[in-house]
TrEMBL record:
Protein name: Protein white-like Protein
Membrane-spanning ranges: 350-371, 383-403, 423-450, 462-483, 489-512, 575-598
UniProt cross-references to Pfam families, sorted A to Z: ABC2_membrane (PF01061), ABC2_membrane_7 (PF19055), ABC_tran (PF00005)
One Gene Ontology molecular-function label: ABC-type transporter activity
Keyword list, A-Z: ATP-binding, Membrane, Nucleotide-binding, Transmembrane, Transmembrane helix, Transport
Gene name linked to the record: AUGUSTUS-3.0.2_07467
UniProt-listed Gene3D superfamilies: P-loop containing nucleotide triphosphate hydrolases
Organism: Tribolium castaneum
Domain ABC transporter: 24-262
Entry membrane topology: Multi-pass membrane protein
Length: 626
């Protein structure tokens, strides 16, 4: 094994520069989750351990033993409730610095859809490697990585068409681009066949041999796979039961009087021992290895934490502080915007569906209100037409966001956690990316209903009419983002439409009645309905200063003087520009709030954490009450 490893080491996988060694130690790590009135649940119980660079370490254990939890805490993905010490090369971990050098490949392969493997790799390279590396060099790095991961023949395949194993390898490839010294992988072999499993593990071993610290959690590996790990760390019920070289585990257990049957998979045996199938051996194993403070090396148990090295600290810090691989926010914005546009364009069926729906609704609504715009007997219907426009531009942009953004957040979480880009760049790209389609489809719909309903063909009315509808549309989309930044798909789909009800109610409340009789509280609420400003502005823009004719056959025709109609509707004191400014303020506020909530969801501050605790507390109390 060692000769093989030396060979790999000499070749230095991927020809990437050697990274300084990163050693991860953890001592007395405890993780508790609150469980309402029942107190709390202890998931990790004061465990310790040490993971070295150049080694492939497997975290093993029965289901529910705490493998993913340990990985999450070590990677810094979830560590708020954890107590204990985590040291990086002998120094307390600075999470911000550590996240610069460590990458976490989560169990779910969240890979951006509608891109080929090559494109996904190039976009990731552009985001992670910065401009100082030429496109040719980036292509060379990508080629090397794809070759190493046996993905060369899938370069033109779309990511959503890849097999499970290929997706897993692509997830690893994407994170290898900037040569991270530390790699965490949560169950990288789940769902793979035996051959793919051993290929995946031998790849990880090569990466570790190149000087990286590679740590993965794994479910019941085969005997062959088990022997491939440089180190296995076994957890059972949140405690460490073995730490050392895999093939030495069985001899070690026999020293404790636990004998493995002949021709038995040692990994299965350890799992069974940990699950209590050979009697209650857990306490014996935990105390023999001192809950991870000891390690079994070459026939003896040795203490782990006697000497710590801090010599590498400086080197790591240099990587962290260097601008290597850093892109400006503007560059990140451009790359992300292009990615979003490419994905949008490639989602042809969805685009087509949207176009068809806008045309159908345009035809339907246009026909419902045909000819009303210049008919003095239909002024009240025209009033209703403006309300329809407002409702259209409230629901149509908001619903797709409520449906798609919760999944998008999962991609964002992975990419942002692995330092691909800042949330600000992402949010700006997201804001700009939807504008063209929204404008084009909105214009298509508006042109149809405008012409069908015989609205005045005057440029000074057409432009503000379109602008007000677009503003309403962008605010509604922002509300969608605001809701789905905080809630999951199910809750968001319920809360979104329900939350719009008061906006709709207050948008038309009190027209024709005059403000004097309206209670002050209702008046305040009316001021908070952005739809009211849209509706009012549309009415003023389209009706003010116009006089209509009555058709001869029509007997009931009283609203021909539209200024008079505006007065009857109690809108004569309203000013269009005030409405438009109010809409712009709404837009800025709601967008900023959705950005804030999104940022808090990914990197919460103390206030937000306190709110989350309160929310969780209320939730557990409520679920107990049932
Ligand atoms: N937020 C939480 N609230 C309550 N229990 C939790 C929470 N997070 C984890 N647990 C529990 O902690 C235990 C360890 O979970 P973890 O996901 O780390 O296990 P695992 O070893 O990775 O399991 P598997 O191999 O099945 O994925 C489980 O019993 C799980 O139910």
């Amino acid at each position: 094994m060692d000769e093989n490893l030396e060979e790999i080491r000499k070749n230095n996988v991927l020809n990437l520069p050697q990274r300084p060694a990163v050693e991860i130690e953890f001592q007395d790590l405890t993780y508790t989750v609150p469980q309402g009135r029942k107190g709390s649940k202890l998931i990790l119980r004061s465990i310790s351990g040490k993971f070295r660079s150049g080694q492939l370490t497997a975290i093993l254990g029965p289901s529910g033993s705490g493998k993913s939890t340990l990985l999450n805490i070590l990677a810094g993905y979830k560590c708020r409730e954890a107590t204990g010490t985590i040291l990086i090369n002998g120094e307390p971990r600075n999470l911000k610095e550590f996240r610069e050098i460590a990458r976490y490949i989560m169990q779910e392969d969240l890979i951006q859809p509608l891109l080929s493997v090559d494109e996904a790799m190039m976009i990731a390279a552009n985001l992670k490697l910065g401009k100082h590396i030429s496109v040719e060099d980036k292509s060379k790095i990508i080629l090397d990585i794809l070759e190493l991961l046996r993905l060369s023949n899938t370069r033109n395949t779309h990511t959503n068409k890849l097999s499970g194993g290929e997706r897993k390898r692509l997830s690893i490839a994407l994170e290898l681009l900037n040569n991270p010294p530390v790699l965490f992988l949560d169950e990288p072999t789940t769902g793979l066949d035996d051959l793919s499993c051993s290929q995946c593990v031998s790849l990880l071993k090569q990466l570790a041999a190149g000087g990286r610290t590679v740590i993965c959690s794994i479910h019941t590996p085969s005997a062959k796979l088990f022997s491939m790990f440089d180190k296995v760390y076994v957890i059972s019920s949140g405690q460490c039961t073995y730490q050392g070289y895999g093939p030495e585990a069985v001899p070690y257990l026999s020293t404790l009087g636990i004998t493995c049957p002949t021709h038995y998979n040692p990994a299965d045996f350890i799992m069974e021992v940990c699950s209590g199938e050979y009697g209650d051996c857990q306490d014996k194993m935990v105390s023999a290895i001192d809950n991870g403070r000891n390690e079994f090396i070459k026939d003896s148990v040795v203490p782990l934490f006697e000497s710590t090295s801090s010599s590498q600290k400086m080197e790591i810090f240099e990587i962290v502080s260097s601008k290597e691989g850093k892109n400006s926010s503007w560059d990140q914005f451009k790359i992300l915007l292009m990615r979003m546009w490419v994905q949008m364009w490639r989602n042809k069926s969805y685009l087509l569906l949207k176009v068809v729906l806008h045309i159908i609704l345009g035809l339907l609504i246009g026909n419902l209100y045909i000819g009303i715009g210049e008919d003095g007997s239909k002024t009240i219907f025209n009033f209703g037409f403006f309300f329809t426009c407002v409702i259209f531009f409230m629901y149509i942009p908001m619903m797709p966001v409520l449906l798609s953004f919760p999944l998008e957040i999962q991609y964002l979480k992975r990419e942002h956690f692995n330092q691909w880009y800042s949330i600000g760049s992402y949010f700006c790209a997201l804001t700009v990316s939807t504008l063209p389609v929204q404008m084009i489809l909105g214009s298509l719909y508006l042109s149809m209903v405008y012409i069908f309903s015989y609205q005045p063909l005057e440029i000074e009315r057409i432009v503000p009419f379109f602008a007000i509808c677009f503003l309403t549309s962008i605010i509604s989309e922002s509300f969608g983002l605001l809701i789905s930044s905080t809630l999951n798909l199910l809750n968001g789909m319920f809360v979104g439409p329900v939350m719009m009800v008061p906006f709709i109610v207050f948008s038309a409340y009190g027209f024709g009645e005059g403000y004097a009789s309206i209670p002050i509280l209702i008046k305040i609420m009316m001021r908070f309905s952005y739809l009211r400003y849209s509706f009012e502005a549309l009415v003023l823009v389209m009706l003010r200063g116009r006089k209509l004719q009555c058709p001869e056959e029509e007997e009931f025709c009283i609203f021909t003087d539209l200024d008079e109609f505006i007065e009857i509707m109690a809108m004569n004191n309203s000013v269009i520009w005030v409405d438009i400014v109010a809409l712009i303020i709404f837009l800025v506020l709601v967008r900023s709030a959705s950005f804030y909530l999104l940022r808090q969801r990914l990197t919460p501050n103390k206030t937000f954490m306190a709110l989350q605790y309160i929310g969780r507390f209320i939730k557990t109390r409520m679920s107990e009450g049932r």
